[in-house]
Every structure is written in structure tokens, then in C-alpha cells.
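Dig into what follows:

_____
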Amino acid sequence: VDDIMKDISEKSRPMDRLLCGDVGFGKTEVALRCAFRVLLGDRQVAILAPTTILAQQHYEVFRSRFEELSAHFPVACLTRFGSRKALLEARRQIASGDVRIIVGTHMLLGETTKFHNLGLLIVDEEHRFGVNQKEKLRCKHKDVDTLFLSATPIPRTLHLALSGLRD
């Protein structure tokens, strides 16, 4: 947690960190604390999950943990289970900055999802996304800190972390 907080505070370059640990290790808890730090800096946080079920789980966790602060840090979920009207409204609120925490699936990568002030991208189960998918948001938002979560990182990602190219 201390290393990640230091990475976020250090603005010489955006954070690019892999957090690897078994199921139940506390990766989501670390991500929540990291998100809170970014939210206090008046930026948005996006959580990218590979499945609608995992996105819904993250939505419930983030909504529950930030419930007392929901007036300041509203949470939205973008998955295929949302109605068209609800998705359009969520996208409008994301673009205006009214929603501060955005949880979703590949919908976050679409051209119709525009962020007001994205500060942190959390990618859960990063091994379930292709290189182009993972880099798409980062290319649109050059100064975004990125936290990749994985219990089973792919060899390429693990090599990047162990060789020092990724924290």
C-alpha cells in the first residue's frame, strides 16, 4: 500500500504497477485505498473487469465502501445488463464528472464512454485482456495511473514487473 501511495504521489510519471496475489490476498482492499487517494485529488477512478459478474461484484463493493461518501463519490456501473436509458445517463454523468467511480466491462473502452478527469485505471484480472485493450484507455489519457490486479499474471506481464519495466 505504501509503495502504491508513493507512486500516486510521485508525478514524474504515471504509476504502472502490477499487484499480484492469491484470491483473498486483499488486492481489492488495496485498490479501494488507492482509489480513495485519487478521489481526494478530485479525479475519477475506473475499474475495468473482464466479466459482467465481476464488474457487478466490484460495483457492490465500491458502492458499499463509499456509501457514507456517496454524495461526493457517486459510483456507476457500465455493463451489458444496464438498460439503454441507464447507460446513456451514466455516460453523460461520467463525461460531466458527476460520477467519480466507474466500474465496467469492455464498455469502458468504447468511444462512447468519455471521462471528465480520469486519474486512476484499475484493471482486474489483467490477463483476461489483450495488450491493445489494456493500452486503449492509457493512450487516451496519458497521465492516468494504472493498477493491474492479478492472481495469475501472464508471463509477459510478470516479466515486465520483474525486469523493472513495470512496478
About this structure: The chain has six helices and six strands. The first helix runs from residue 2 to 9. The chain has a mean pLDDT of 85. The two ends are 13 Å apart (CA to CA).
